[in-house]
């Protein structure tokens, strides 16, 4: 460990003392700075990064104890090790120095070899701490990158599972993408944070995942459902929730909410629990309008895509009935943005 990598600040109000210590340290290759009082020492440390401070106690303006106390309260200086070098060596003074945060206490006059050994010991410890800190930072960075990879994998799995649910019912391939984008915009315009809006965007592709548990004969029936068939079809929201509810992952927790609540209606006539108004989670209210807007504009096995004016009229008529009135207003106030998303992710119907 080469000594020239370390910078040591000598703080003493007696120039001869500074010259003596500086000469000893320079002979061993250390880089040295000096100050004749505590305030000058603090000013110097703001300009130069020192690895160790050799601090006298009895000085004008700010004494050594005051200087040490100020350093330990400063986030930029608190980790610099301090060794007191002083003639004030009564037990009370020594204890006070250690309580204030000094790492060592050397009496004047000092032994040259003892001084160098104590300095070397503290610099070895400081160098080890710096290396350990760097390794911890590198480790935290690696953990963060791994966490991001896990989150990205979750997003991919969520989207893929959502797409599987749509494919089974022969719905448009980009339906889940569009619903995700619509939901994200609605969430932001509604006033949710970027974090929550992004979470909903990631979770919304799973809104119909429960369809994987519905038989093809019902899921892809081209005509109107019989009463018992409709009850089976409606069960997909509960099935989706049961598939997702036990996960502790935020994305899948949000997806569970979306799965079970996106068919609830604002007036309480929806399913599966007949919730109404704000009883319905905002994720469910947002996904409801996003899903219906996209579904009506897409070809399905049981219908052809509706014309825009007919879709818009239904959404207006469903304000306060099916949909949260605030979300309906947001939808029409930003209609050009939603149409832009639809055009960007446009696809043809599946046959």
Structure overview:
- The chain has two domains: 3-110, 3-Layer(aba) Sandwich (Rossmann fold), CATH 3.40.50.2300; 144-344, Hypothetical protein af1432 (Orthogonal Bundle).
- The protein has helices spanning 15-27, 38-47, 64-73, 91-100, 112-168, 175-190, 194-203, 216-219, 227-234, 236-244, 250-261, 282-296, 308-317, 325-333, 335-344; strands at 7-11, 31-35, 52-55, 82-86, 104-107.
- 58% of the residues lie in helices and 7% in strands.
- The chain is built from 15 helices and five strands.
- The mean pLDDT is 87.
- A five-stranded parallel sheet has the order 2-1-3-4-5, sandwiched between helices.
Write the layout of secondary structure elements.
Elements: E1 7-11, H1 15-27, E2 31-35, H2 38-47, E3 52-55, H3 64-73, E4 82-86, H4 91-100, E5 104-107, H5 112-168, H6 175-190, H7 194-203, H8 216-219, H9 227-234, H10 236-244, H11 250-261, H12 282-296, H13 308-317, H14 325-333, H15 335-344
Parallel strand pairs: 1-2, 1-3, 3-4, 4-5
